[in-house]
Amino acid sequence: MGCGRIGAELAHLLDDEGHKVTVIDVDSDTFDELPPDFSGMAFLGDATDEEILRKAGMEQADAFVALTRDDERNAMAAQIAKQIFNVPRVLCRIYDPLREDFYSGLGLEAISPTRVFVRLLKERLGE
Amino acid sequence: MYVIVVGGGEVGYYLCKQLLGEGHEVVVIEKDAKMCEHIEEELGDICLHGDASEITILNKAGITRAEMIIAVTGEDEDNLAACQVAKQKFNVPRVIARINTPRDEKIFAKLGVERTVDAVGLISEHIKAETMLFPVTRLFSIRDRGLEVVLVRVGRNSSAVGKPIGELSLPLGSVISLVIPQGEESEIPTEDVVLKEGNQLICLVPTENIGSLQAIFKES
User: Fold this and answer.
1) A73: Cβ–Cβ under 8 A, 6 or more apart, which residues?
2) What is the mean predicted confidence (pLDDT) over B128-136?
3) Is A46 on the interface with B (CB under 8 A)?
4) Do A72 and B80 touch (CB under 8 A)?
5) Domain A5-126, CATH homologous superfamily name and number
6) I need a labelling partner for A90 at 20 to 30 A (CA). Which of A11, B73, B194, B203 fits?
7) Are the beta carbons of A76 and B103 separated by less than 8 Å?
8) Looking at B25-29, B44-48, B71-75, B182-186, which range is the least confident one?
9) What confidence category does residue B110 fall into, taking pLDDT thresholds of 50, 70 and 90?
10) Which residues of A touch B110 (CB under 8 A)?
11) Which fold has domain B2-120?
12) Which chain B positions have a beta carbon within 8 Å of A71's beta carbon?
């Protein structure tokens, strides 16, 4: 969910490795980020809508990753994937480091890019 | 009571005004600086500028002593996030969310936010009642009992016309509480009251039986 730079790049890599990938975004222009040889599916729609997710094949999904710019949307879509569709692995981007812990407590694999990047910068500075 | 309102748009503003009028202590959290300014001008120093699903801003609002949080922004995902954090991290006793997309009601309940008000659904039900084109409109839900208070119109040639109430096979658990005849006094009906076309009824019905109630009064 979310076909920005990171979403498109991740979809590309997974597709190259032979996984079956579906990208969902509310803006069809973002699909231009996908490489021309992308063999997965690009699905236009709102991934906080249960029906859209069902149509996109969520019931068969082994993993779901929420990567929009909006923490709240990511958290809501990820919880729908986890609680309603019982997707085994659900990852979501949560910029706010304090909420990363909260959503992790709800059984999501929440990742805060803020925290990851700060850790990386600190490591580099320590070298 | 100390109440935190999330979202200072039209709904948030009027809600705050009324809560203040009842003597409650209110803080409203609003993302938009301009709207914050407007609220402060009108209602005094009660607005916090920020994102209500962020834990720092909730702390600043004194969430640990809040007895209620009401999330009324126009974005369902924001309302969900604020309510979940308030309920599950800070144990706020009463958590209420506005829902803007009717389909989200089920999702919210599944994700632990049971007290929701479906804004779009409510408005369309009230408009339906005014059009007088629908046999049944929902006026009010008593959700934790699974009951609905509905307005029924006795349709032309419907199976209920000319029958006394006692002879109707109303669905299980439903009651006709009030009969409102056109141009006459309304009455709390007894079993022998005979229904006429165009009568309006206030009924109490279990949510799952609304369809069967509708079948009895539908125009044919």
Assistant:
1) A47, A48, A66, B77
2) 87
3) no
4) yes
5) NAD(P)-binding Rossmann-like Domain (3.40.50.720)
6) B73
7) no
8) B182-186
9) very high
10) 83-84
11) Rossmann fold (3.40.50)
12) 53, 81
- Between CA B39 and CA B32 the distance in angstroms is 11
Domain boundaries, chain B: 2-120, 132-217
Q: What is the residue whose two structure tokens read 């120093």?
A: B45
Q: In whole angstroms, how far apart are CA A6 and each of A1, A10, A65, A68, B184?
A: 11, 6, 11, 9, 68
Could you report the per-residue pLDDT of B60-108, keeping only the tens digit for each? 999 999 999 999 999 999 999 999 999 999 999 999 999 999 999 999 9
pLDDT above 80: residue A127? no
Please name the fold of domain B132-217. Alpha-Beta Plaits (3.30.70)
Q: Which two tokens stand for residue B138?
A: 């929902």
Single out the residue of A118, A87, A119, A82 nearest to residue A103, CA to CA: A82
